[in-house]
Amino acid sequence: MKIKSQRDFWSGLMFVAIGLGFAWGATSYSFGQSARPGPGYFPFGLGLLLAVLGGMVLFKALTIETEDGEPVGGFAWRPLIIIVGSIALFGLLLPRLGLFISLPLLVISSALAGDEFHWGEAIVNAAIITVFSWAVFIYGLSLTIPLKPTFLG
Fold first, then answer.
1. Per-residue b/e over 92-117, b at no fewer than 16 CB within 10 Å?
2. What is the rounded CA–CA span in Å between residue 62 and residue 3?
3. What residue numbers bound the domain in which 41 lies?
4. What does the pLDDT average to over 67-78?
5. Which of 39, 91, 124, 141 is 20 to 30 A (C-alpha) from 56?
6. Are residues 141 and 87 in the same domain?
7. Cα angle at 54 between 88 and 108, to 5 degrees?
8. Is the pLDDT of residue 72 over 80?
9. Would the pLDDT of 153 be above 70?
């Protein structure tokens, strides 16, 4: 069978592998029941869903002809490093600076990875995501996530 779109083939294969990996990793946790799901229930379902979607992309790559075969381009190292670094920085800063500072820093620094960065859009996105995260995780779920820096008390 001939690969008709290299991009779709490799991305579909990646989605299948990551999805199956997450589903397999979730089997070590308790599943619970549908009425009271355990910690493995949600990641298992999402992993399977990702694998199924990857399978659909893989099927498309093998069946639908493209004009040039859509070759895989160069690897985008800069955005990868910026986004992974931003997430690592968020993990380090959250316990020390709290949600109200570290989450906007995450959003703005991650936005720097894009080709069309605009300060206004990044700040608005950071504000919306911070308010939404507070509403969901602090107000709605009552999680104990620090909101402000530890040095402020």
1. ebbeebbbebbbbbbbbbbbebeeee
2. 5
3. 6-63
4. 78
5. 39
6. yes
7. 30
8. no
9. no
Q: Is 5 within 8 Å of 66 (Cβ atoms)?
A: yes
In this prediction, residues 20-42 reach a mean pLDDT of 89
**Which of 113, 114, 145, 111 minimizes the C-alpha distance to 127?**
111
Residues 107 and 130 occupy one common structural domain: yes
Burial pattern 71-89, b for ≥16 Cβ within 10 A else e, equals: eeeeeeeeeeebbeebeee
φ, ψ (nearest 5 deg) of residue 147: -95, -35
Look at residue 36 in the predicted model and tell me its pLDDT: 83
DSSP per-residue letters across 33-59: -SSSB-TTHHHHHHHHHHHHHHHHHHH
Domain count within the chain: 2
- pTM equals 0.66
Cα–Cα dist 100/96, whole Å: 11
Contact 23, 44 (CB under 8 A): yes
Cα–Cα distance measured from residue 60 to residue 112, given in angstroms and rounded to the nearest whole number: 32
CB atoms within 10 A of CB 44: 20
- HSE-up of 58 (CA within 13 Å, CB side)? 14
